Amino acid sequence: MPRHPLKKALPLLFLLVLLAIACLATSLMIGSASIPAADLWRLLWQDDGSVQYRIIHELRLPRTLSAFGVGGVLALAGVLMQALLRNPLADPYILGVSGGAAVAVLAAMLLGLPLIWQAPMAFGGALTSTLLLFALAHQGNWNTSRLLLTGVVLAAGWAALISFILSLSPPMQLPGMLFWLMGDLSDARYPALPLAVLAAGVLITLWLAPALNLALLGTQRAAALGVEVRHLHIILYVLASLLTAAAVSIAGAIGFIGLIAPHMLRLLAGSDHRILVPGAVLIGASLLVLADTAARTLIAPMQLPVGVLTALLGVPVFLLLLNKSYGKRT
Q: So what's the pLDDT on residue 281?
C-alpha cells in the first residue's frame, strides 16, 4: 500500500529544518569576531557579561532572525504568485510587485512620513502592481511570454519612477535610500515583525492548500470541484501583496528568493501545497540567512547589499527556468 504524500515528505521536511538550524547557527558564529560552536548554545541562554554575548544578542541574533523571517516571507509570496498566475516563473521581484512596493516606500521617505507609514504604503504599491500585472497579462490567451513581458514592462516603469524619486532626494538621504533599495538587513533589529507575518502567512496558506491544489487543474475544473475561484484569487491578491510589502518595508527589494525556493522544493517533492508551503519557506529562509551572512563577511568590515548576492544566484536560475519553459513549447 503506497504511503501518504505527507508521510513521504516528512523526512525531507525534517532535513530542511536541520538545514535551517545549521544556517542560523552559522550566521551567529561567523563574523568579525568568530564564536566557537561549543560556546554558542551557552551564550544564547546565559549572560556571562562577555563581549561575545553582546555581539550575539545585540547584533547577530536580531539580524539573523530578521533574515530568516524575510526570506521565508519572500518564498511564501513566490508560492502564492505562482499559484495565482499558474506559472513557475512568477516572482514578486521579476514581475514588478517588489518594485511597486519600493516606489511607495521611497515616496514615503522623500515626503518625510513617519516610519509607521512605510508598511501601509508598501502594501498599496504591491497590491497596485499585482492588480496591474493580472489585468494586463490576463487578456485572451494566458501564456508565459505575455506574463513575462508584462512583468518586465511594469518593473521598468517602477524602475523609472524609482530613478525619478532618487533624483529628487536630498544628497544626505540618497546613500541610505540606495543601499536600502538594493536589499539591506543592517537595520533589521526587530525580528518579531517578519516572524509574525511569516507565521500568519503560513497558517493562512496551509488552510488554502486544498483549494490551491485543485486550482492547479485549471480554473474551470477547480470551479467544477467546488472551489470559489474568484474569492480564492482575491485572497491571493491581498495575501501576496501583504507579504511582499512586509518584506520590502523591512529589508528593501531583495530579489529571486521567491523564484528559487519554490522551484527547488518542487524538484524535490512535487507541487502539493501542503508540502510546498513549509518546504519552500524553510529553503527561502535558509537561503537569505546564508546570503546575509556572506554579505556582511565577504569584504568585512564593509558590507554588501544582500540583494546583490541573491540576484547573482537568481539570474542564472531564472534563465535556466525560462529556457526549460520555452523548450517544452518547441
A: 96
Domains of the chain: 63-329 (1.10.3470.10)
- Return the SS3 of 217: coil
Q: Are 130 and 98 in contact (CB under 8 A)?
A: no
CA atoms of 159 and 96, how far apart (whole Å): 9
- Return d(Cα 275, Cα 210) in angstroms, integer: 11
Which helix (H) or strand (E) segment holds residue 262: the answer is helix 257-269
Q: How far apart are CA 310 and CA 258, in angstroms?
A: 11
Which residue type does 134 have?
F
pTM listed for this prediction: 0.89
Nearest to 155 by CA among 240, 95, 105: 95
Cα–chain center distance at 142 = 25
Residues 220-243, mean pLDDT to the nearest whole number: 84
Q: What is the pLDDT of residues 87-141, one digit of tens each?
A: 777 788 888 888 999 999 999 888 888 878 888 888 888 888 888 887 777 665 5
- Dihedral angle of Cα 217, 281, 183, 302, to the nearest 10 degrees: -150
* C-beta of residue 279 within 8 angstroms of C-beta of residue 13: yes
Res. 321: pLDDT tops 90: no
What is the pLDDT confidence band of residue 241, given thresholds at 50, 70 and 90?
confident
Q: How far apart are the first and last CA of the chain?
A: 39
Q: Find how far residue 85's CA is from the centre of its chain.
A: 17
